[in-house]
User: Which sequence fits this backbone?
């Protein structure tokens, strides 16, 4: 069971990943919108979720579902 803080971090990482997938906003700007995070933190979150999508089919489906909801498919 994840702690609440760990769960919040994971959710933020997914949100950052989705933002980087849909927008061409600079990483510095994305970090500012996520609580003044450094651009390297944004890169880490994006890359971490990207790897999880490649490795875990369940997570890949969840991310696909989120993308579909965003695109209203």
Assistant:
């Amino acid at each position: 069971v994840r702690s609440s803080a760990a769960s919040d971090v994971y959710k933020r990482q997914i949100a950052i990943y989705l933002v980087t997938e849909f927008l061409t906003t600079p990483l510095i700007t994305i970090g500012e919108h996520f609580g003044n995070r450094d651009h390297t933190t944004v890169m880490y979150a994006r890359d971490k979720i990207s790897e999880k999508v490649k490795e875990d089919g369940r997570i890949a489906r969840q991310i696909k579902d989120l993308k579909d909801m965003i695109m209203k498919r």
Q: What stands out?
A: The mean pLDDT is 95. The first helix runs from residue 4 to 22. The radius of gyration is 12 Å. Helices lie at 4-22, 27-33, 39-55, 57-71.
